[in-house]
Amino acid sequence: MTEENSYEGESLKKVSGLYRDWFLDYASYVILDRAIPSIFDGLKPVQRRILHSMRELEDGRYNKVANIVGNTMKYHPHGDASITDAMVQIGQKELLIDTQGNWGNIYTGDSAAAARYIEARLTPFALEVVFNPKTTEWVKSYDGRNNEPVDLPVKFPLVLAQGVEGIGVGLSTKILPHNFNELLNASVAYLKGKKFELFPDFQTGGLLDVSEYNDGFRGGKVRARARISQLDKHTLVVTELPYSKTTGDLIDSILKANDKGKIKIKKIEDNTSDKVEILIHLHNDVSPDKTIDALYAFTDCQVTISPNACVIVGDKPIFTSVSEILKINTDHTVSLLKKELEIELHELQESWHFASLERIFIENRIYHDIEEVKSWEAVITTIDEGLKPHTEHLLREVTEDDIVRLTEIRIKRISRFDLDKFKENIAALEGRIEQVKYHLEHLIDYAIDYFNGIQKKYGKDRTRRTELRIFDTIDAAKVAVANVKYYVNYAEGFVGTSLKKDDYLFDCSDIDDIITFRRDGTMQVVKAEPKTFVGKDIIHVGIWKKNDTRTVYNMIYREGKTGPYYMKRFSVTSITRNTPYPLASEQKGSEILYFSANPNGEAEVVNVLLKPNARIRKQRFEIDFSDLAIKGRNSRGNLVTKYSIRKIDLKEEGVSTLAPRKIWFDDVVKRLNADGRGALLGTFKGDDKILTVNTRGDARLVSFDLSNRFDDDYLILEKWKPEQPVFCIYFDGDKGIYFIKRFLLENNTNIQNFMPADHPKSFIEYVGTVSGCSAEITFAKDKTGKTKDPETVDVDEFISVKGIKAIGNQFVKDKIKSISIIVPEIPQEPEEEIPEEPRHESGEIPEEGIIKNLFEEENGNSSLI
Fold first, then answer.
1. How far is CA 131 from its chain centroid?
2. Do residues 151 and 38 lie in contact, with contact meaning Cβ atoms separated by under 8 Å?
């Protein structure tokens, strides 16, 4: 089938043909000329043209952005709005463009003022690193009137410093920004043959987990978090943002999560200006730590970013890694430096060549030989002949252009010729030539010095803003706010959030799992939905948490209609949702007679009353569940009696039978855990608390709840011993002397500040909780130049325990040089053994057997209870 047909001299082409021929051209244009940056200068065409235009206009003063945009349109065949937007984005990155006026706010997302109101010029860094017309390859602009660079000769890994994002036809790129100094350090390490690692760094700060960064390859990911801290017990403050989010994005997501009931806040304030400050006010009954976790789980306070390093190399897009981009950029910088040195060497040699010719021309008075010569050709020939006896030492042959330049020397210069100055000039040129040759011979060392020089000049204030940290995994079900009411119809077997006419049970989250137990011994876990049928004769409904070993269920049941009675204690740590599990017996007629759910492993005492039976002497007896081991849910349990039970009554509430819990602190994620990660804080039970002390002198007592956060700059984080005094040595900036104090903390969760000095120069020298410490004091020289001998002070003897608000005692009167604290070795407390239950290979706990005889043998028969 032909693609073209002719009608009356006109050629028509089918649409399919147009698509086939032009789509590839269009895709190539979008990829190469709009969306994807070059690996060598890290710029998209519009960015490259803006910078080239700014260099063209550069005179040291600010230019109106509107003027720069207008000049850029000579090179960029698009509208002024797109150029302005691209220029504002470059300016906000604070690296290449020195801005003046309202350039918008990267924190709030506010746009910049109109182009006619704001001004810009190139930064000294850009002028030094980005431009060099001698090493630039040029092409004609789109209209053929001007020349523009193919790539700017950038001697720096700019694409990694600024980051880039773009979407082309069939592919996209997302390279995250990296730290200025870290990039230079990595380039130096690469040139030295050492290993290096690069991780993103964002202007908005925040926290970043790069454990799955995968060197920026496609398929990797990073998790970015806002920096959230507790201002007081009812207020949280956001001071840094996750990458790609503004304060408006964050606030909208928080309000949306609040409306859905995922979190619970009172109000939110945005006080952001040049720094981020979002205040989140909480209700009195809301946990700040749990709310922080919920903000990360349900709002834009935590985002996942998938990098995709795609760049243009030559005329093709390639997918690569951040490390490979840095290596290519560093090699490119070395080649540019080499090219600059070669150009400089050539220019110096040319200068030396002509200076030598000029000296020969003047010193040998060759200019007198052309006084009587009448034709130009004869002048050239005469000078050439006059130079020949003196040009053997020159670097190259004398050309006609050289001779023409000699004829252009002014008489004034000839008359003032100073041989000594000429010799000094030539010697200086020769010294510079030797230096350039040396740099060419030691090119790698020269490149390393170049990178170090750039860092020394421009890297002073470019410290890392984003803190690298491994994030803890937040279980959304554990931090979701209880936002719905849950009901049950015991008789009919329905549970759900919509059964408002039935019995109210508790508030829960709409993502919680619900555990149910029925009279026949069947257990089932379902989602918290409006209405779910779980079976008739429900006896217990509760919220179920995965891997919960603290909640223990106590149960007495009958095996079958007429079988014996058993009792058992068990936890439910894992299940398959919506699957019924028989906990009593699969025999028909099995029934639960007594059931209790105990959130902290409590074991109560119950009275068991048997039905009248002539063979039984004692009709009533007690069962203490604490005598029973906690087993797997599938275990049969221990025999209670084979006789019929009339009823079971609760006699005494139970206490926890669980062993004290070992708690560790993982300094990497700043969280507590019971899995053995990090430093062991000790064994905790009941009301035990953790003591934290920060650099501001704030002491806090917090529970050992694993959801607690410890993001502060703490000096102490340990298990609190109520009877153990805290001692502190601090410097009073107002009085200019050191004080020491000892005090006890009150048993409450309020912040207790013990620093009486609030002068900006005040600071804590040391704070600790160990008894028997001593302080070695080294003194500074006095006014006479003498130094007092060092002293050792026993802290416990020096000062008694006083109130937390006390100033304390002056440490010493003389000027102190240093204080060293000697801490005695702390004896290890014996670890409390936490018994483990024996298990079969299948993981089930074997049946323990009959616990004991509760009845004496009578008439040769024994009743085993």
1. 34
2. yes
Q: Distance between CA 136 and CA 694 in Å, rounded?
A: 55
User: Which residue shows structure tokens 């937390």?
Assistant: 804
The answer to whether the beta carbons of residues 306 and 220 sit under 8 Å apart is yes
DSSP-derived secondary structure letter, 552: E
Q: How many residues appear in the chain?
A: 865
| Residues 748-763, mean pLDDT to the nearest whole number | 86
HSE (CB half, 13 Å, CA atoms) of 399?
Answer: 8
- Give the integer Cα–Cα distance in Å for 10 and 8: 6
3-state SS, residue 4: strand
* pLDDT at residue 735, rounded to an integer: 87
Q: Where are the beta strands (DSSP E) in 632-695?
A: 638-641, 645-656, 661-666, 671-673, 679-684, 689-694
Domain ranges of the chain: 349-455, 545-659+835-865, 662-822
Question: Rg (Cα) of the chain, in Å, rounded?
Answer: 41
Provide the sign of the torsion angle of the four alpha carbons 678, 683, 686, 687, taken in this order. Answer: negative
Distance CA 49, CA 347 (A): 29
Distances (CA, A) of 113 to 71, 88, 107, 203, 272: 19, 10, 16, 21, 19
117 is catalytic: yes
Q: For the ranges 661-675, 757-771, 797-811, which has the lowest average pLDDT?
A: 661-675
- Of 263, 290, 370, 855, give the one whose Cα is nearest residue 251: 263
Determine the 3-state secondary structure of 538 from DSSP: strand
Q: Examine the pLDDT at 367 and tell me if it is beyond 80.
A: no
Options 3.90.550, 3.30.300, 1.20.58, 1.10.268; CATH of 349-455: 1.10.268
At residue 752, what is the residue type?
Q
SS3 content of the chain, % helix, strand, coil (to 5): 25, 30, 45
Place of tokens 């007495």: 556
Can you point out the beta strands (E) in 351-423? none
CB 108 within 8 A of CB 276: no
Average pLDDT over residues 829-843: 41
pLDDT 10s digits, 63-111: 999 999 999 999 998 889 999 999 999 999 999 999 999 999 999 999 9
Task: Report the DSSP beta bridge partners of residue 331.
Answer: none
Cα–Cα distance for residue pair 838/397, rounded to 1 Å? 98
| DSSP conformation class of 125 | H
- Please state the rounded mean pLDDT for residues 274-300: 90
Q: In what helix (H) or strand (E) does residue 250 lie, and over which residues does it extend?
A: helix 247-259
* pLDDT one-digit tens code per residue, 520-575: 999 999 999 999 999 999 999 999 988 888 899 999 999 998 899 999 999 999 89
CB 141 within 8 A of CB 147: yes
Question: Alpha-carbon distance 466 to 178, whole Å?
Answer: 10
- Torsion of Cα atoms, 738 then 739 then 745 then 748, to 10°: -60
The answer to whether residue 8 scores a pLDDT higher than 60 is: no
Structure tokens at 165: 């994002």
Q: How far is CA 199 from the centre of its chain?
A: 10
From 19, 117, 142, 438, active-site residue: 117
Q: What is the pLDDT of residues 666-698, one digit of tens each?
A: 887 788 888 788 889 988 887 789 999 998 899
Residue 418: its pLDDT value, please?
Answer: 67
Task: Estimate the crossing angle of helix 65-72 against helix 45-57, to 10 degrees.
Answer: 120
Structure tokens at 663: 């708690």
The values of phi and psi at residue 254, to 5°, are -70, -45
Amino acid of residue 3: E
Mean per-residue pLDDT over the chain, rounded: 86
How far apart are alpha carbons 166 and 726 in whole angstroms?
A: 57
Q: What is the mean pLDDT of residues 433-457?
A: 95
List, as one string, the DSSP characters of 557-574: EESTTT--EEEEEE----
In the block, tokens 């894992």 appear at 574
**Residue keyed to tokens 């080294």:** 778
pLDDT of residue 524: 95
